Hints:
Layout: H1 7-28, H2 37-52, H3 59-91, H4 93-102, H5 111-147, H6 157-192, H7 198-217, H8 220-227, H9 229-238
Amino acid sequence: MxxxxxxxxxxxxxxxxxxxxxxNLLIDISxxxxxxxxxxxxxxxxAWMISMTRRPVRIMDTAITSGLQQGTAFFASTSLLxxxxxxxxxxxxxxxxxxxxxxxxxxxxxxxxxxIKVLGLMLIFAYGFFKFGWAYRLFNYxxxxxxxxxxxxxxxxxxxxxxxxxxxxxxxxxxxxxxxxQRAFFFSIGFMGWFGGPIAFAVMTLAVLVVLLRRQFASKAxxxxxxxxxxxxxxxxxxxxxxxxGSSNPFT
Length: 252
């Protein structure tokens, strides 16, 4: 494989991996994670579960959870379809390369290099599938714990708070894995630039990285979420704190 890849291909692939996994570390583990849109939404998830404990009827909460599960299932199934499309590309390599030559498209004529690129793209979608699949299970676990929370007028105050905290942390962890899966999809767009050459690969990876950084740190969505951030935090504090559980590691 090393004989097939040029030095510029290796540099571009290295830059892609640094950008992708470095972004995951920045958003999920680094001290700057507290300034991200994702972190702000984590606090809304916790505030949601606290508010849920005060509602006598929780149809809305189960509907929201169901919507989160359905969205996650959609992306998981899309990942499988994309992997299947990758196998179709591998089976049609010669035809695609011939069409690219006929149309003078900037696609490498090396069969081995083309297959390496397709396999790399399939690996990205496989990573996304595992993330979405686990996120779906975590949303399911969160909904089960949510269903075990006693009614609002129950005297078991500590039990209500503890179970609500557990449901919230499962929901937060599910959201993190879902976000990791989506990032895989976004960076797959940058990876597709490799089919146009290593320079296009590096440039498209940079473009995707800039867009994602802007969304997390300087987007209008972040400003809108933070505008109600203090209120969400104060409501959670009023209802009492609970111990956080789970891992923020984006690779597990």
